[in-house]
Amino acid sequence: MRGERAGQESRARVWAIKEIFGSALCFQPWRRTQTLRLRTVLDETHRSIHYMEPEIASMATRPNLLGYLEHHAPDTDGSFSVCIAGGHGVIISQKLYESIPAEHRPALDTGVAGQAVEFTVMGGTQEIIGTTLLPWILTTTSGERIRLVLHALVLPKLFMGMFIGNGGLSWLKSESWGGGRGPQFSFDFGQSGKCTAGDLGLRQPHEDETLTSSSQDRKHLQQMIHSSRVYKQQ
Predict the structure, then answer these.
(1) pLDDT tens per residue, range 187-198
(2) How many structural domains is the chain composed of?
(3) 84 strand-pairing partners
(4) Range of the domain at 6
(5) CB 123 within 8 A of CB 230
(6) Which of 23, 119, 146, 163 lies at a C-alpha separation of 20 to 30 Å from 128?
């Protein structure tokens, strides 16, 4: 009898707490632990991707997309800049790759380490440290978050987190500009459907800023040329 009475009192206390604080707080702990499931629209894991002559045929200093790492350090939001421009190959920075927590970091394949990436605009080359299969997240203009797994070359020095060369990229269909906004990219992932992404936005400088965008570009260009020459001499 005592046990039954204690059980009734315990249930009564639980219901009282529910009435005071609400059911979401007391009875839905799964909300804290559930895993967000995203639709994977492109996975190059088993597609035997290989770039014979990877190149960056642009300055690659202006982001036009924002990506998110699938796994990232708890003190960051996992976001990184993406530049889609002239060139060939998907290239990520070593810094971005190493920012992924070790337990979730994709394997680095060093079989083609030393392959040169040519900077055709700035001159010089850099050598990759290897390749990896990078899962990342992109938000479309409709607000959907989609998942991509891309075969990427890992480069020690790259201003962007990721560079995507638009040459020979089968799933990139078009790029458009308008309204003073950033570019809009149209993608076609076959059976996974079509979508658009972009409009990262171009920050307008304040009146008291004396460093113009063109001088910023020149500064970035000088740094990239210096880095490229150093790697070419090694």
Answers:
(1) 999 999 999 998
(2) 2
(3) 164
(4) 2-33
(5) no
(6) 146
